Amino acid sequence: MITLRGITWEHPRGYDCLVAAAAAYRDLTGVAVDWRFRSLQAFADQPLTELAAEYDLLVIDHPHIPAAATEGLLAPLDGHGFDDQLRDLAEHRVGRSHLSYRHDDHQYGLATDVAAQVAAYRPDLLPEPPPDWPAVLDLARDGRVLWPAKPIDAYSSLITVATGLGHPPTAEPGRFLDHDAGLEALDLLHRLAELVPAECLTQNPIQVAEALATGDRWCYAPLLFGYTNYSRAGFRTHRLRYTDIPMINGAPAGSLLGGAGIAVSALRQAQGTSAVIDEARRFAFWVASAEVQRGVYFDGGGQPGHGAAWADDRLNAETLDFFRGTRATLEGAYLRPRSLGYMEFQDTASPWVTAALRGELTDEELLRRLDEAADRWLR
Predict the structure, then answer these.
(1) pLDDT tens digits, residue range 201-237?
(2) Which of 125, 184, 247, 302 gives 297 a disulfide partner, CB atoms 3.0 to 4.6 angstroms apart?
(3) Which of 153, 299, 312 minimizes the C-alpha distance to 235?
(4) Would the CA dihedral through 77, 81, 83, 89 be positive or negative?
(5) CA dist., res. 130 & res. 145, Å (int)
């Protein structure tokens, strides 16, 4: 029996769904996939070199793609008998998710999980979410709002708001954000930070979703990466309804694109430790297909990436319209720079944003540092 090794991240959305899919695939083909997991922080930060040497299948964050492809860590998925499937995935993409796993005219991953910063609220406590930022701040003054703002999430929120203002990052060499738009975005985030609990500056989206879903004090979060698990009956005490981010200039635009994709290691075969690279590709395309995404993958706790799953009536009925309710935000989401040095930039810059929100850096100093780091890593 062929056994593939896979590495994903530690959450029902990242792990349970793939274990369920692997069981179905083994029944169907006789090929087993042994899935292991790492922490959410490691998913975002851990270099892929050691993982690609040990695992055949990798669930990864799309900003890793340019460097991993350039270093020869990942096997291209195009040109190996699956191009019809690739065309289907491109046609049924959600926003720029499919494109985010492409580099130098080759596809190195499949968007099996799609996410961006969205909003979430408790429909039993709040009949309708605030439509725009003035309404968000009003609700925050009443002590009802949470916002995850640990470094990577604060950084993501800064990008989301600045892009929503019409000024996405890296518009010109050596400048990460338009100066005036950066100050305007930071002013909004400062006002929000002053109105939410201080511990929000140490929290991630899972921690905020847990707080929203298990108590009755908080009822809304304006910017957090969506987790469809919290919108399903029985996952926690209360269900969350996810919706589009607060509007700027009349549209829910600019949200930072996240999610996860499945990729195939190029190192395992090169080392002679695996002769099953085509089997790994077959599993990747199978789990990314519409039938699996809206079937066993979703039922196992996954958050699909295929557009057919996002339009599926059953999936929306079971998640308080998670997919239809956030689709406009996903379609207008911002794709992070494709520079080879982007991960170094993000890891370095993210703590500065939270430091600025704490008052440890001035906004001018933050913007200056971002420009200098962009000049170093985002050429």
Answers:
(1) 999 999 999 999 999 999 999 999 999 999 999 999 9
(2) 302
(3) 299
(4) negative
(5) 11
What is residue 42's predicted lDDT score, i.e. its pLDDT?
73
Tell me if 34 sits within 8 A of 57, measured CB to CB: no
In the chain the beta strands, taken as DSSP E runs, fall at: 3-9, 32-38, 57-60, 102-103, 106-107, 110-113, 117-121, 220-225, 241-243, 260-264
- 0.85 surpassed by pTM: yes
H helix runs in 215-254, sequence order: none
Instruction: Give the 3-state secondary structure percentages of the chain, helix then strand then coil, rounded to 5.
Output: 50, 15, 35
Residue 55: partners with Cβ closer than 8 Å, 6 or more residues away: 5, 6, 7, 36, 265, 268
Distance CA 16, CA 14 (A): 6
Asked whether the predicted pLDDT for residue 158 surpasses 50, the reply is: yes
- And the tokens for 78? 């195009």
User: Position 172: which residue type?
Assistant: E
pLDDT of 60 > 90? The answer is yes
The strand order across the sheet containing 220-225 reads: 220-225, 117-121, 241-243
128, with CB counted inside 10 A (0-12, 13-18, 19+), is exposed
CB atoms inside a 10 Å sphere around CB 249? 10
Looking at residue 324, its pLDDT comes to 98
Taking residues 115-122, what's their average pLDDT? 98
Question: What is the reported pLDDT for 271?
Answer: 52
Q: Quick one: 118-255+339-377 is in which CATH superfamily? A: Periplasmic binding protein-like II (3.40.190.10)
In order, the DSSP letters of 8-50 are EESSTTTTHHHHHHHHHHHHHHS-EEEEEEE-HHHHHH--SHH
pLDDT at 274 over 50: no
Let me know if domain 3-115+257-326 sits in CATH 3.30.1490.100.
Answer: no
Question: Which H, E and C letters describe 144-208, residue by residue?
Answer: CECCCCCHHHHHHHHHHHHHHCCCCCCCECCECCCHHHHHHHHHHHHHHHHHCCHHHHHCCHHHH
Q: Which residues pair with 145 in a beta bridge?
A: 220
Return residue ranges of the chain for CATH 3.40.190.10: 3-115+257-326, 118-255+339-377
Asked whether the beta carbons of 261 and 111 are under 8 A apart, the reply is yes
